Amino acid sequence: MTAAGLATPDLAVDRLVKHFADHHAVDELSFAVQRGSFFSILGPSGCGKTTLLRMIAGFTVPDGGSIQIGGRSMHGVAPNRRPVNMVFQQLALFPMMSVGENIGFGLARRGVDKARRRQRTEAMLERVGLAGAAHKRVDELSGGQRQRVAIARSLVLEPTLLLLDEPLGALDLKLREHMKIELKQLQASFGTTFVYITHDQSEALVLSDHVAVMNHGRFEQTGTPQELYYRPATAFVAGFVGANNRIPGRITGQDGDVAELTTAQGWTVRARRSGSVSVSDAAEAFVRPEVASLERAADRLPPDHVQYTGQVQSLLFDGANSAVLLNEERSGFEFRVALPQTGRFADLKVGERVSFGFDPQRAICFAANAHG
Amino acid sequence: MAEPLSQGLAQRAWQRRLVLAWLLAPAVLWLLLLIVLPHVDLALLSLRERIAPRVYRPSLTQYRTFFVEPLYWQVFVRTAIMSALATALTLLIAFPVAWVITKVARGRASALLFVLCLIPFWVSETVRALGWLILLRESGVLPALLVKLGITPVPVELLYHDATILIGLIYTSLLFMVVPLVSSLESLDNALIEAAYDLGANGFVILRRIVIPHAAPGITAGCIVVFMLTLGNYLTPTLLGGKNSQWFTELIYTQFIVRFNWEQGAAFGFLLLGLSTAMVALGLRLSGQRFVDVMRRA
Predict the structure, then answer these.
(1) Do A94 and B194 touch (CB under 8 A)?
(2) Which of A224, A356, B110, B277 is the most buried if burial means most Cβ atoms within 10 Å?
(3) What pLDDT, on a 0 to 100 scale, did the predictor assign at position B297?
């Protein structure tokens, strides 16, 4: 770990800037990606992640800052001369060529002779589980197979860095779940550094070693998926990564690291504060649905939980992800609680009165800011 | 129960066929009356020989004359070569134009450029050719300009050269090449170009391996149309080339109108038809494409 940490990062971005007519697409961004890691950039559409990726690939020229790949500055280096390859959103396989020609395309550009090319193409196809498909036409392949060809076409060039631009976006849900696992396995077996951009938090959490959450051209937080999920640094991260109950209100009290927040409708909750907040500040508390617990009788809730009463508004059955939407009794605030997987609440009815609560230490509270 | 149902279905199918026949009728009539019938008549004309006033007999003399008389087949070959050259040059000029319209210009600029290509066609071909006459004749605008700039001591005649004919033909044909090229380049996903670039290709390789294969049906369709229009053009070669033009359509015109030798003219007409068919077939064969595919995708 130390050795890897000390080695030159495969990608080092320093104070990178790109602005279009009216806004900063990428705003003074600096980060590094270590060799062999799977790094995701997660953000809503329009956050600047595609611009960032295109600057790394060389298709867009930055307005300022620097990009180093494998320790080499990429200033003025054209895309066809960078040790970087990209898997495009719509894959961009060449329909006028066979699968084998698609994979051999980059090798041919490097002057690899025909026999070596065929050999390496075959070997690569075998590694991605498509042995013998070299002569096939691109449109004869299924969605998942095309995905693998697109990745193989890039990996056969042994790039320092593989960029992936939401490559799973075009697939249907079932295939997407499957390809997630496959991508992770491919990355592990090749050991190539992956930089992956997506707006899908589940893709980012499942696949990555490190995730950067991007918003308005900046990284809100960079960390492991666990860090982002359990210790979000900003209200945006808390709201964007994973499901969360967002409770806006004003601070009405403080007790050590726990702040008390009251909503406009008068519901008071307690949550661990992140950063400094002071009384009467506007703030937001976040409580994950699985942090809250649900009981029919208030006295069965854990003693450290603050207790509330609510009415079941609707039941959201989704197998292991089932949840219930409650209306807090006094304020009518809509609150989501995950249902335990024991099936204990399988008979819950809409309109039923229940007790719920959560540990304030596992809820988090941020001062509300302008762009949160 | 089953019987009346199937009868009803059969009747419905018959009705549908009737509607289709009615809709196709104008096109079929047009083809039959204006294309097929005259050609049958011309074919019969070309295969006979006049031996006395109003006395004819079947013969291949008209076709024999074409091969025996060097002027005829030389003009024929010259027309074919010049047309092929004009088609190739039109492609070379139209391709960058179509590229700029589809891939470089955006939105309104792209539409405006396309309209600029179209505007010359609001004027009739005759007027356009006469415009060239005003520009290029010895006492015209361009020779006067050359004298004023001191490039030539006296005004030179810029009309009646092969180059002049080519310029006129290219100018007339440009739009017919630009339109199919634009439509085939428009459907080329920019990501394919970027992907090729990303995989290490340079501009030339991208053009050869990605752009041209993708645009091939458009290129072929444009070439077929331009070649046929050029080969059968009468006005532009006559006006810009004068007596030097030696265009095959002029020979046909002469036979029909001046010499009143319809038999010979008909034979020439069929030879020209054969030539254009053969050249198109050759072009399709060389580029490995099928006519139906080209016409459908263009």
Answers:
(1) no
(2) A356
(3) 61
Whether the predicted model's global pTM rises above the 0.90 cut: no
In a domain, residue A372? The reply is no
Divide the 372 residues of chain A into consecutive groups of 10 and give the mean pLDDT of each group.
Answer: 61 94 89 94 93 95 94 93 94 94 96 95 93 93 92 94 90 88 91 94 93 94 95 93 93 91 93 88 93 89 88 91 92 93 87 93 84 42
Helix/strand/coil for A284: strand
Task: State the 10-residue block means of pLDDT for chain B, 298 residues long.
Answer: 69 90 93 91 91 89 92 93 96 96 91 89 87 90 92 89 92 93 94 95 95 93 93 92 87 92 93 91 84 71
**Residue B212 contacts A, CB cutoff 8 Å:** no
**Testing the interface with B: which of A94, A98, A138, A151 to mutate, by most B Cβ within 10 A?**
A94
Q: Do A214 and A278 fall into the same domain?
A: no
Distance from CA of A74 to the nearest CA of B (A): 14
In sequence order, what are the beta bridge partners of A303?
Answer: none
**Of A217, A236, A255, the domain-final residue:** A236
Pairing relation of β-strands A293-295 and A282-287? Answer: unpaired
Residue B207 has φ and ψ, to the nearest 5°, of: -60, -45
Tell me what the pLDDT averaged over chain B comes to.
90
Chain B residues whose beta carbon lies within 8 Å of the beta carbon of residue A59: 194, 197-198
Collapsing DSSP to helix, strand or coil, A92 comes out as coil
Domain count, chain A: 2
**Domain check: are A80 and A117 in the same one?**
yes
Among the candidates A236, A255, A290, a domain finishes at: A236
As a whole number of angstroms, the distance between CA A118 and CA A341 comes to: 52
Of A78, A92, A96, which has the smallest distance from its Cβ to B191's Cβ? A92
- Angle, helices A173-190/A143-155, rounded to nearest 10 degrees: 20
Instruction: Check CB contact under 8 Å for B199 and A92.
Output: no
Paired residues of A241 in beta bridges:
none
Q: Which domains does chain B have, with CATH numbers?
A: 63-114+160-297 (1.10.3720.10)
- Residue A291 domain boundaries: 243-367
